[in-house]
Amino acid sequence: MRKLKDSRRPEILDAALAVAAERGLDALSMRTVAQRLGLTPMALYGYFRSKDELLDAVVGRLLSEIPAPPPGLGWRETVEHLAYGLREVAARHPAVLPLLLTRPAISPAAMRIVDAAYAALLVAGVPPVQVPRVERMLSTFVIGHTLSEVSGRFGDGTMDPAARRAQLPPEELPGHNALAAHLDTAVPWGEEFRADLRDLCDLIESLGRATAAGPRG
């Protein structure tokens, strides 16, 4: 009986993603998902005990779309594979992307992805005590950068960079005015993501080298 019930979970998660895509994350609830499926809210509680459990399952669903790293990849290639996989998933599901920053990664799919990152960082020589921190830094960068792109945080909004600077006298914005030529140039966000990821991998590599060198006498 339990197995029969579980067989509808993918359908429910599909409906949750559709509700969020069409009406926004704030509209995602047990009631709206049940309505989309033609169920009563009480029937949905037979599959998920609470909205929190449903949201955790949505996070797991997103992370399950990241393909596992192929065997034989080096640590840097593994990190890049996971980063671009997460970026692609996030771009496909922008409405629920904030969940990746607000919900803990507790599903089996999430555990597999995090474990692959842990293993890669260990191969890179990152001290074990620092591996969880470095993994959090990497995943937060990937999610945050992608969320900033799809949410409009990186955009001009109602003012382009020049108009923003014009709100204050130049002497109050010395940094902005010194960088004006660069701030007024359109940013290729994909290239910036690639450069940022490369810099983070270089940092990881430096941690590994420092560990291999050992303490200096």
TrEMBL record:
Pfam family of the protein (one): TetR_N
Keyword list, A-Z: DNA-binding, Transcription, Transcription regulation
Residues in the DNA-binding region annotation: 29-48
HTH tetR-type domain mapped to chain residues: 6-66
Xref: Gene3D superfamilies: Homeodomain-like, Tetracycline Repressor, domain 2
Coiled-coil regions, chain positions: none
Name the record gives this protein: TetR/AcrR family transcriptional regulator C-terminal domain-containing protein
Organism: Dactylosporangium darangshiense
